[in-house]
Specification:
By secondary structure, this protein is an alpha/beta fold. The chain has four helices and six strands, in the order αββααββββα.
């Protein structure tokens, strides 16, 4: 029974870790974040992001909704500019189950195969960077980064983008220690 409980615990931890967003942030300690009340998107920076225009729209919608919920106003004369860039990488996962039937290596008329069962899967991990730039100084004052496995299901993409953006912007404004 202990063996089954341990396996169940490992499975739950593994499954829950697959859906998380890993986040980090960095900021200028000299910046006064209380002075930023409005924002606009920094088009030159956003245009450089190497993702589809549809995914850019999803990300920008999520950022706008989150910033608005924090009390920021979208403005033509903003205090802060928001830019994004992205990176992706393919992860290859190999699961080896080396348990099989038979007497081991060699020929056995009652056994088909060598007892090795391998499963190979690939996942795409995306990293989104959100840059907050002081509009008057044109200086980066805050950067948040979030990494997560991406979905190819069109119906779930906006929800995944919302989750990633919310996790990143949860770190803004930075809390002083």
């Amino acid at each position: 029974m202990k063996y089954f409980s341990l396996l169940s615990l490992i499975l739950i931890i593994t499954l829950s870790s697959c859906s998380t967003v890993r986040v980090a942030s960095d900021y200028d300690k000299q910046a006064n974040f209380d002075t930023y009340k409005s924002f606009a998107f920094y088009k030159p920076g956003i245009d450089k992001a190497e993702i589809s225009d549809l995914d850019k729209k999803r990300i920008l919608r999520a950022i706008e909704a989150d910033m608005t919920s924090k009390g920021f106003l979208k403005s033509n004369n903003p205090d802060m500019l928001v830019s994004i860039f992205t990176k992706t990488k393919e992860n290859v996962n190999i699961y080896q189950n080396n348990f099989g039937w038979g007497y081991g290596w060699g020929w056995n008329p009652w056994f088909w195969g060598n007892g090795f069962n391998n499963t190979v899967t690939t996942t795409t991990e995306g990293t989104l960077y959100i840059d907050l730039i002081d509009a008057s100084k044109k200086e980066l004052v805050w950067q948040g980064m979030g990494s997560s496995a991406l979905t190819k299901d069109v119906d779930k993409k906006q929800g995944k983008m919302n989750e990633i953006v919310a996790a990143i912007l949860e770190k803004y404004p930075p809390q002083s220690n």
